[in-house]
Amino acid sequence: MIEIKQATKNFAGKAAVKDLDLTVPDGKIFGFLGPNGAGKSTTIKMMTGILPLDAGSISMNGVDISTDPMKAKHQFGYVPDRSDIFLRLKGMEYLNFFGDVFDVPPNVRKEKIEYLTKSFDIYEALNDQIHTYSHGMRQKIVVSGVLLHDPDVWILDEPLTGLDPKSSYTLKEMMREHAAKGKTVFFSTHVLEVVEQLCDEVAIINKGHVQFRGSMKEMKQQFQEDNNLEKLFLELTQNE
């Protein structure tokens, strides 16, 4: 579970996120949407400890990210929206680095690496340096590294970007399986059709405030029953 209470972040005296309250329950795929500059990326960076909060609190499974950051970071896996990191490492070196950071036992690590990289069709490229990978392959190795220690909470920022249809389907199935185990998937994306098909609940943020939070059914009932997510998203954000 993710609990965000009165989270606030200012840049140059201006609030990027203001008094944000949001609870992401276990057993759900939770979609997080917002136009450019809405505060979506700032919120995710506060959730993961990349940015400090100016006020409020954020906890992962009851562990506060500000007061106990190391323990909190063991609760989640984070896929950023950029995959151009550690490019000089070989794929296997990158995955072993994550295994060392999160104390994944060698036997478990070997099994998980094989399962994840074969699922994403990059197993044969693990001895190549990541800078030789295509964008899609880089995204796959990042996702594999994040999921290696089997965190309870997944925080995925545009994770499907650059993935081929087969790998995209594989990751979506993994997300469904993770939520079915009673764990948490927090999923940020600009692909509204994916949200409509995949997410149990959604939140729409704009100008640092949550404009809507609820199920797809509740969103459609609040507006017009025949509206699709794209129309609802535009209706919620166009006048802000």
From TrEMBL:
Keywords: ATP-binding, Nucleotide-binding, Transport. InterPro entries: AAA+_ATPase, ABC_transporter-like_ATP-bd, ABC_transporter-like_CS, ABC_Transporter_VariousFunc, P-loop_NTPase. Residues 2-232 form the ABC transporter domain. SUPFAM superfamilies: P-loop containing nucleoside triphosphate hydrolases (SSF52540). GO terms for molecular function: ATP binding. PANTHER family: ABC TRANSPORTER ATP-BINDING PROTEIN ALBC-RELATED. This is ABC transporter ATP-binding protein. It comes from Halobacillus kuroshimensis.
